[in-house]
């Protein structure tokens, strides 16, 4: 407002503590910031300025915590991946005859949920098919993840029972949760002998037999898990 000839109104405006509105005291701006962080259109119109400021601070703190937690999880998952592959390589070094009888592919993923099936399901089948074609002998695949998505369980179960030329016939892919796999490795270390390729192969042969006898993929998967937990 411009008060050229009204000194009283000019002074009233000049000394009004509500003006000018500072950037940090703009309620509309605060509401927009909160919505941007939460991704929700929260009902903030009835909130006071102080309440809005407190809410914004809380949401910023929560968001920071989420970002940090995600980074930590990513780091841990990469470490888990490295640890699993290192341990598996160690145990394979104690079984020099494994490549004389069959080939074994090990696929490890940290993907979970539907993304696991979308990103890993079909590629794993292709990798196994390639291994069968190039190796000229029986080949199996061990699929390891922190949690196995039901879609992957169903897909791998079906591949046991389907003769698909593109995949080189039926595909024996055994899905195994990370904690079950670690338990399996611990069993091999605790044993007073070194497990040989025949005992490794038994898991995949059992998987094939089980797929023929099971009512559905859930029964197949649960019995596979039980077998792995009591491998030796």
Helical percent range?
Answer: 55-70%
Number of helices: 9
Strand proportion, as a percent range, falls in: 5-15%
Uncertain segments are: none
Mean pLDDT: 78
The value of Rg in angstroms is 30 Å
Largest sheet: 3 strands, parallel
Helices and strands in order, then pairings?
Elements: H1 7-14, H2 27-38, H3 49-93, H4 98-101, E1 103-108, H5 113-135, E2 139-145, H6 150-161, E3 173-177, H7 178-190, H8 197-213, H9 217-229
Helix pairs in contact: 2-3, 3-7, 5-6, 6-8, 6-9, 8-9
What does the model show?
This protein starts with 6 loop residues before the first helix and ends with a helix. The model has no long low-confidence stretch (mean pLDDT 78). The protein is mostly helical. β2, α6 and β3 form a beta-alpha-beta unit. A 3-stranded parallel β-sheet has the order 1-2-3, sandwiched between helices. The protein is elongated and about 100 Å long. The protein contains 9 helices and 3 strands, in the order ααααβαβαβααα. The chain is 63% helix and 8% strand.
Brief rundown of the structure:
The protein is mainly alpha-helical and 232 residues long. The chain has helices at 7-14, 27-38, 49-93, 98-101, 113-135, 150-161, 178-190, 197-213, 217-229; strands at 103-108, 139-145, 173-177. The protein is elongated, with a radius of gyration of 30 Å.
């Amino acid at each position: 407002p411009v008060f050229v000839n009204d000194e009283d109104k000019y002074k009233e405006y000049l000394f009004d503590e509500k003006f000018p509105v500072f950037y940090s005291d703009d309620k509309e701006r605060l509401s927009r910031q909160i919505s941007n962080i939460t991704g929700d259109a929260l009902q903030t119109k009835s909130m006071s300025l102080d309440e809005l400021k407190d809410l914004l601070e809380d949401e910023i703190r929560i968001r920071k915590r989420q970002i940090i937690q995600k980074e930590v999880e990513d780091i841990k998952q990469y470490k888990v991946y490295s640890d699993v592959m290192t341990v598996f390589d160690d145990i394979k070094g104690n079984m020099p005859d494994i490549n004389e009888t069959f080939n074994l592919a090990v696929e490890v993923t940290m993907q979970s949920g539907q993304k696991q099936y979308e990103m890993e399901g079909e590629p794993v089948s292709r990798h196994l098919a390639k291994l069968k074609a190039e190796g000229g002998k029986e080949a199996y695949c061990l699929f390891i993840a922190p949690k196995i998505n039901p879609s992957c369980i169903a897909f791998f179960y079906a591949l046991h029972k389907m003769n698909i030329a593109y995949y080189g016939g039926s595909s024996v892919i055994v899905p195994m949760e990370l904690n079950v796999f670690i338990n399996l490795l611990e069993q091999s270390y605790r044993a007073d002998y070194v497990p040989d390729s025949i005992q490794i192969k038994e898991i995949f042969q059992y998987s094939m037999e089980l797929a023929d006898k099971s009512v559905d993929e859930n029964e197949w998967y649960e019995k596979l898990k039980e077998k792995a937990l009591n491998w030796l």
